[in-house]
Amino acid sequence: MATPHQATQVPEGAAKWGLVAERLLELAAGFSDVLSRVQVFLRRLLELHIFKLVALYTVWVALKEVSVMNLLLVVLWAFALPYPRFRPMASCLSTVWTCVIIVCKMLYQLKVVNPQEYSSNCTEPSPNSTNLLTTEISQSLLYRGPVDPANWFGVRKGFPNLGYIQNHLQVLLLLVFEAIVYRRQEHHRRQHQLAPLPAQAVFASGTRQQLDQDLLGCLKYFINFFFYKFGLEICFLMAVNVIGQRMNFMVTLHGCWLVAILTRRHRQAIARLWPNYCLFLALFLLYQYLLCLGMPPALCIDYPWRWSRAVPMNSALIKWLYLPDFFRAPNSTNLISDFLLLLCASQQWQVFSAERTEEWQCMAGVNTDRLEPLRGEPNPVPNFIHCRSYLDMLKVAVFRYLFWLVLVVVFVTGATRISIFGLGYLLACFYLLLFGTTLLQRDTRARLVLWDCLILYNVTVIISKNMLSLLACVFVEQMQTGFCWVIQLFSLVCTVKGYYDPKEMMGRDQDCLLPVEEAGIIWDSICFFFLLLQRRVFLSYYYLHVRADLQATALLASRGFALYNAANLKSIDFHRRTEEKSLAQLKRQMERIRAKQEKHRQGRADRGHPQDTLGPKDPGPEPGPDSPGGSSPPRRQWWRPWLDHATVIHSGDYFLFESDSEEEEEAAPEDPRPSAQSAFQMAYQAWVTNAQTVLRRQQQEQARQEQAGQLPTGGGPSQEVEPAEGPEEAAAGRSHMVQRVLSTAQFLWVLGQALVDGLTRWLQEFTRHHSTMSDVLRAERYVLTQELLQGGEVHRGILDQLYTSEAEATLPGPTKAPDAPSTVSSGLGAEEPLSSTTDDTGSPLSTGYHTRSGSEEAVADPGEHEAGASLHQGRMRTASELLLDRRLRIPELEEAELFAEGQGRVLRLLRAVYQCVAAHSELLCYFIIILNHMVTASAGSLVLPVLVFLWAMLSIPRPSKRFWMTAIVFTEVSVVVKYLFQFGFFPWNSHAVLRRYENKPYFPPRILGLEKTDGYIKYDLVQLMALFFHRSQLLCYGLWDHEEDAPSKEHDKSGRKEQGAEEGPGALPEPQAKAGTGLEEEPGVPEATTEDHVQVEARVVLTDGTPEPQAELRPRDTRRISLRFRRRRKEGPAQRGLAAIEAEDTEEEKEAPTGREKRPSRAGRRVRVAGRQLQGFCLSLAQGTYRPLRRFFHDILHTKYRAATDVYALMFLADVVDFIIIIFGFWAFGKHSAATDITSSLSDDQVPEAFLVMLLIQFSTMVVDRALYLRKTVLGKLAFQVALVLAIHLWMFFILPAVTERMFSQNVVAQLWYFVKCIYFALSAYQIRCGYPTRILGNFLTKKYNHLNLFLFQGFRLVPFLVELRAVMDWVWTDTTLSLSSWMCVEDIYANIFIIKCSRETEKKYPQPKGQKKKKIVKYGMGGLIILFLIAIIWFPLLFMSLVRSVVGVVNQPVDVTVTLKLGGYEPLFTMSAQQPSIIPFTAQAYEELSRQFDPHPLAMQFISQYSPEDIVTAQIEGSSGALWRISPPSRAQMKRELYNGTADITLRFTWNFQRDLAKGGTVEYANEKHMLALAPNSTERRQLASLLEGTSDQSVVIPNLFPKYIRAPNGPEANPVKQLQPNEEADYLGVRIQLRREQGAGATGFLEWWVIELQECRTDCNLLPMVIFSDKVSPPSLGFLAGYGIMGLYVSIVLVIGKFVRGFFSEISHSIMFEELPCVDRILKLCQDIFLVRETRELELEEELYAKLIFLYRSPETMIKWTREKE
C-alpha cells in the first residue's frame, strides 16, 4: 500500500512547484511591464523638458563665470526661450561655442602664455580723489594686484585643468544628451509606427474627459497640463520670487510690470501684453549681465560714482542700485531667478498661443476667466458637494474650504510682523471673515473685484517693501539713530546679506532693535500664492456648485433650529407623559392594594373572627396570617383617620404584594434583539475558551449574516477574518504551537478592529441626532441647489416633493418606528436631554431623568396613539420623522452614503470624531476662549469668559446669533488693538520699562492685555478659527439664524408680505405646504428676542395697514402682538420727527386762549423739541437695555424647553477635584506659603490662613449647591451662579495676583483650579438652562449597572462621613414623612440592592460556561496574590524593620560628640566636644583592621558584620578641657577635705552625649549614657587628686577602667558601650591620666586652671581620646511614622487591625446569604425607585405605604424568595 501512496506524492509536489514557478513568472512579467512603463514615462518627460534643463544649466555656468565669451551663451538662450524657432539654432551654436571656449581655456594654459608680461598695474588713488574707504581701496580689483586683461574675456590660468573646464564640459555633455533624447524618441516612434501624443501630453488617458473620474485620472491630467492651467500664476509667483531674492532697485521694474499685468485682470488682455513682457525680460536679463560684466579692469579706469569723495554714494548704495563696481561686483548668480522668470514667461506665451487651438481645447479643456452665467443649462462639471469619491473629498477641501485657509494665511501674514502693512492684512482678513460667507454667494464679477483689490494690495506691499529696503539696507545706521519710529512703523529689516552685520546692529540700541528674525516678503509671497489660487477657484465652474450650496444653506439658516426645537419639545413631552404614566400606574397599584385590604378587613370584621384565616373569597395564593409577620392588632382598625405615622410604617402585610403580577403585565416588553458583541465581551470569551473558538464563532456569524443578505454592522471585525486552519474538532490545547501563535495574533488583530468599530459606533450614536438633522438638511439643500442651478424661483413648495403629507404620515394606526433604537443626545441639541446620565438598563422608572429619544422612538402604547397623533399634528415633525416620511429618492445622496460606509475603519473613525467635534463645536469655542484667558489673564480677555458663563450658556434654548457675532467682533477688535499697541515707539514698550515691570502682575498694559510680547495673538488666531468653524457648523446644521426661515423671507420679498405677516416666522407661503414639509410654525420657535425682529414686525404691520384676520392665537402669537403694540407706543415722541412735533406746537398755539399776549419764541420751541427728543432717546436707551435683560432672565425661569436634566454628579465631581487641588497645591494661593509644607504645618498644630479660608469657602459652596439642588430652586441657582462667576473671576485675576505677587499665567496650580471651576460653571449653567429633574434622589453613581459605577460607588462609601453627610443633607432639604433612621434604612437597602444588581448584570454580560473548572491563571493569579498578601501582612513588621536597618535605612552619623567628667556634686572637671572635622568616618582599611583585631571572637564579629564602614565613625576628642575650671574657693576647700578625710565613696562620673540630624531621619535627636566609678576612702587616687588641688604635686592621676572605646548609637536615646567588643564590660574600659594645669593669667586675673585627660597607655597622639561609635541606620523621613512603632508596635497596631478587617470578609458570610444571594433584584430596585418617585411628587402618604411594603419584604423571607425570582 505504500508504493501507490508514494507514486501519488511525486506529482503533487511537482504540481506545487509548477504553481510556484508560474506565479513567479507572472510576478516577473508584471514587474517588467511596470519597468517598461516607467521608462516610457521618463523618456517622454525628458523629451518635453530636456531643452529647459540645457538652457538652465548653460545660463547657470555663464552666471558663475561672468565673461565676454559666456555672454554669447546668455544671448543665445535669452532669445531662444521666448522665440521657439531659434531653439535648434541655439543648441547648435551653444555646442560650437562651448567647444571654442574649452579650446581657448586649454590653449591659455600653455607655458608660452605669460600674463605677467602684459598685465596692468593700476596706481592707488589719493583719499580725496575717490569715495572708497582706506580698507576698500586695498580690496578693489584695480589695486590689489596685477590685472590680467584675458580674465575679462573669460580665460585665466587655472590649476587643475579639469576643474577649470569642468562646467563647460558638463554643458557640452548635456547638449549631446539632448540630441540623444530627441533621436531616440524619433527612432522609437518610427520603429513602432507611433505618432506623438497630441498637446504635448505625457499620458494618453490624462485628458479633460478623464479628469473627474478618479484620483488617478486627475493626477495624470495635472502631470500633462499643470502649466497649461496654472502657468500664469506660476509666472506671477516667479516675479515675486525675483523681487524677494534681490530686493534692490532693478527689481522695481519687475514690480511695475507685475502691477501692469495684474491690473489688466482678464486673460485675453494679459495675452495681448505678454509678448512685450517676454521681450522686456530677455533684454533686461542681457542688460543686467552687462552690468555684472562691467568695463575691462585692465584700463585702470574706475567708475564715475567712485571718482570723488563729493559723490554721495557708498558701497551699500551702489550694491542696492546694482551698479558695476570694482570693489564689490554685482552678484551675478541672483540673475538665475530672472532667467527662471523668463523661462516660465516664455512657456506661458506658448500656452497663450496653444489654448486657442482645437487640439489643446479638446485635450486640456478651455482656458477662460469669463464664466458665463448658466441660464438653465446644466453645469459642465459634475457635482462633488456630497463626496461620492475620494476625488470629491479633495474637491470639497479645495473649492469649499480653501477660502478660509487663505484667510488664515492672510492673518498670519499680517501678524508675523508689526508694521502698518500688517495692519492692512489684518483688517482685510477680518472684513472677509465677517462678510466672507456673503461674498462667496455673490456673482463672479462682484467676488473678483474685491479679491483683485486684495491681490493688488498684496503686490503693493511687496513693491513698497522693496523700495523701503533702501532705508533698511543702505541708511540703517541713520534710521536707527534718528528715525527709529520709521523702523518700527514699517518693520524695516534688510533680508539680503552683505550690507551690514546683524549682530553688531542688534547691540547698538536696545530701544530700537532691528526685527532681524522677520523673513522679509516670504509671508507676503506665500499670501500672494494663496490669493492667486483662490482667484482661480472663483473662476472655476466647480465653484458654481459651492455657491449654489452656500445659497441653499443660507436659505435654510434657521431650518435646523426649528427641527431642534421640535425634537426638544417631543422629548420633553415624552418625558412628561412617561412620568405621568409611571405615577398613574403606581397609584393604580396602591388603589388595588387598598381595595383588597379594605375588602379583606371588612370580611373579617363581618365574621367577627379576627384570628381566622382568610376566607375562600379572597383571591390570590398569599400566605395566611398565621405565618411569621402576620397581621398586627392595629391593622384591624385601618380605616381610622387618626392612625399615626408609626402605625402605618409597621402595617405591612402579604396583601401588599398581590398586585405585582398585574403590574408586570403592564410593563412594556423588552427589546428581544441581541446587541452587538463588544470587544471586551470578545476578549472575555477568548479568556474563558480560547482564541480559535472565538475566531470560529466570528466566521460562523459572518457566514450567517452573508446568507441572510446582511453585512456586519459598521464593517465589523469579522469581515477580514480568514478561516482558521486545522479541524474544528481538535482541542485547542493539542494544536500546534505555531498555529496557536498565529491564531492568537489573528485574534488580537480582530480584537483591535472590534475596538475601533466599537468606538466608531459609540461616536455615531453620540451624534445620531445631528446626523439625522444633517441628512434632512442635506436633502433639502440638494433640492434647493438644483433649483438654483436651473435658475428657477425658490419657494417653500419646492420641498413638498421630498416628504409625504402629515395626513398621509399619521393615517396608519401604529407609530412608524416603535422599535428604532434610542438616540443618544449631545450638547448641540437633541431629542433626549442628556446622554451621559440616561443610559439605563432598568425600567423607565429607574432614574429620575430617564427619557427615551423622541427622534427615533415613539410611545409604544397603542392606547395613546390618538394622543400621539394629535400631538404630532400640533407640533412640527422632527428630523427622524421627516426621514421616515421622505418619498423621494436622491441617487447622489445614496451614492455618497454608500461611499462613506465603504471607507476603511480609520477613515470611518476619523469621520466619526469629526462629526462629534462638529456637533459640539460650541464646547470647542468655550474651551479655547477659556484657554486664551488662562494664558493671557488680562482684563480684555476676561470679557468673553464672563459672557460665556452668564450669557451663552444660559441662553434658551441655545446661544443666539448675536452672542456669536459679539464674540467674533470682540476678538477681532481686541486683535487690532493688541496689534496697534505692539509698536515699539510707545513709551511703555521701551526696554527699560519692560525690564522694570518684568513678572509683575500690576503693569497697566499687562492688566489690559496690551503688553508687547512675542506670541501676543497666537491664541487669538486659534480662537478666531474656532469661532468661525462653529459658525460654519451652525450654518451647516441650520442653527445660525433663530428668526424665520430664509425661504419665507425670499418669498415675502416677491410680494407675499400679508401672508407672511399673518403666519409669522416659520410660516409657509402656500397653504398646501403645511402638511407636506413640516415647515409650519411650531410652538418650539422662541419668541423674537432681538430688536431687529421687532422692527421688522412693526414695519410689516405699519406698511400693510390691513387688519389681521381673526385666528386662534397661540401663546406665542399673543406675545408677538403685545410686542408689536409695545413697539408702537415706544415709537412715540422719539421717532415722529421734528416736523410732526412742530406741527403739534402750531396747533397748540392756535388753540391757546386769545388773551395770551406773548407767544413763546421759535427758539424756545426748538429747545422744547430738543428736550423731548433727548428724553425719548434716554427712555428708549433705558428700555433697550432693561427689556432684553428682563426677557433673558424671564426666558430662563419660565421656559418651555426645560428638559429636566441632572448634572449634579458632574458638578460635585468638579468641586471635589478643586477641593483636592486646594489641599495639595495650597501654596500657590498665598504669598509666603510656598516655603511651607501642609503636613508639617498641620503636625505643628498650625493651619495656614490661605489654606483654611479656601477650604472653608470651597466646602461652603458645595453645601449651598447641594441645598439648591435638593430644593430644585432654579432662581436661587441662577443668583448663585452669577455671584460665583463674578466673585471667582474678580478673585483669581485681580486679588490673587496681588496676594501672591505672581502673574496668573505663571501660577500653574491656580490655572488648573480655575479650569476645573470653569467646567463646574459650564455644568451649572447647563443645569440652570435645563432645569432640575423631577426625581433627583438616589446616588448619581447608581444610574448604570457596570463595573466602573460599582467600583466608584464602593469608593464613595469608603470615604469617611461622606455617606452620612450626604444622607443627612438630603433628609434636611427634602420633604418626607420618614424619620432620619428610616431614611438611612432606605438608603442602605438601595445601596445593597444596587451592588447585587451590578453583580447580576456582570454575570449576564460575561457568562461562565456550565461545569467548567476555574483556570489555573485565575486560581494562581487571584488566590496567589491573596496568599502573598496575607503572608506579607504576617511578616511585615520583621521584614520592615530589617529593611529599615539594611536596605532602605539612612546612615545618620553623630554631628556632635560631647564628653564630661564630674567628681561628686562639684563643678565638672572636664568638658569637651568633637564636631564634624573631628568625627572621622571609617575607611575600608580601618574596617578591615578592626575585623582582623576581633577575628578570633565570633560574637564580636557578628556585631561588626551588622555595620558597614559608613556606619562607623571615630570621634577624636581633644584631651584638654574646652572650658576653664572655675570653682569657688569654698567649694574647692570642701572638695579637698572630702578627698582627704571623707569616709564615704566619692563618685567619678564619665558621661557622653551624641547629637544627630533629624532631617535625615529618626525620631530622637540626642543619645547619651554615663559610666560611674566609685573612689573608696583613703584610696591612692583620692590622695593624688587632693594633692593636685593643693598644688603640692603636678603628677597625673591614673584612673583605671574609665573610658569606654566602643559605643553603639542606636535609634533610641540610650548610647551604651558595645558589650560584644568589650566582653568584660568595665574591665575592658581604658584607663586615663588626669592632670590639672595652671597658667598665669594676664593682668590681675590670677591663675587659669583646666583639666587634661590622656589615655593611660597611649604611644602617639596622647592629647586625643579616640571613641569609636557604631551608628544604627534610621528610617527615612517618609517611613518614620511606621518605624517609630517598633516591631511590637507594628504587630499590635497594624497586623491585628488588618487581620480583624480580613476576618470580616471571610467570616459570617452565611449570615448575609439571605440578603445578598438574590437572583433578581429588579422588583426591589423598582420599589426603592418608586419611593423616590412618590417623594418627589409630594405623595407623602404613598411614601409611607411603600416604605411599609419595603420593611415587610425584609421581615418576610418567604415573600423575599418569591419576589426575587427571575422574571418569566
Written description of the protein model:
With 1768 residues, the protein is mainly alpha-helical. The chain is built from 66 helices and 11 strands. The strands form 3 sheets. It has a 4-stranded antiparallel sheet with strand order 2-1-5-6, with no helix packed on it. The longest helix has 63 residues, at 2-64. It is extended and about 140 Å long. The model is unreliable at 1-10, 610-642, 665-673, 710-735, 811-873 and 1044-1158 (pLDDT under 50).
> Would you identify the regions where 5 or more consecutive residues have pLDDT less than 50?
1-10, 610-642, 665-673, 710-735, 811-873, 1044-1158
Overall, the morphology is: extended
Distance between the termini: 63 Å
Radius of gyration: 49 Å
Q: What percentage of the residues does DSSP assign to strands (E)? A: under 5%
Main pleated sheet: 4 strands, antiparallel
In short:
The protein has 1768 residues and is mainly alpha-helical. It has a 4-stranded antiparallel sheet, with no helix packed on it. Strands 3-4-11-8 form a 4-stranded mixed sheet, with no helix packed on it.
Topology:
Elements: H1 2-64, H2 68-80, H3 87-108, H4 134-139, H5 149-153, H6 161-192, H7 215-246, H8 251-262, H9 267-293, H10 315-321, H11 335-354, H12 358-364, H13 390-399, H14 402-415, H15 420-441, H16 444-474, H17 476-482, H18 484-490, H19 502-506, H20 522-538, H21 542-555, H22 559-607, H23 645-649, H24 660-666, H25 679-688, H26 691-707, H27 737-766, H28 768-789, H29 806-810, H30 865-874, H31 879-884, H32 891-901, H33 905-919, H34 921-936, H35 939-952, H36 961-980, H37 991-996, H38 1004-1008, H39 1018-1037, H40 1046-1053, H41 1057-1063, H42 1074-1077, H43 1091-1104, H44 1115-1130, H45 1138-1151, H46 1162-1197, H47 1208-1224, H48 1238-1243, H49 1249-1271, H50 1274-1300, H51 1308-1330, H52 1347-1358, H53 1362-1372, H54 1380-1405, H55 1416-1434, H56 1436-1446, E1 1456-1463, E2 1470-1474, E3 1479-1481, H57 1484-1493, H58 1498-1505, E4 1512-1518, H59 1529-1541, E5 1546-1555, E6 1566-1575, H60 1580-1590, E7 1597-1603, E8 1606-1609, E9 1630-1640, E10 1647-1655, E11 1664-1671, H61 1680-1683, H62 1686-1706, H63 1713-1716, H64 1722-1736, H65 1740-1755, H66 1757-1763
Parallel strand pairs: 8-11
Antiparallel strand pairs: 1-2, 1-5, 3-4, 4-11, 5-6, 7-9, 9-10
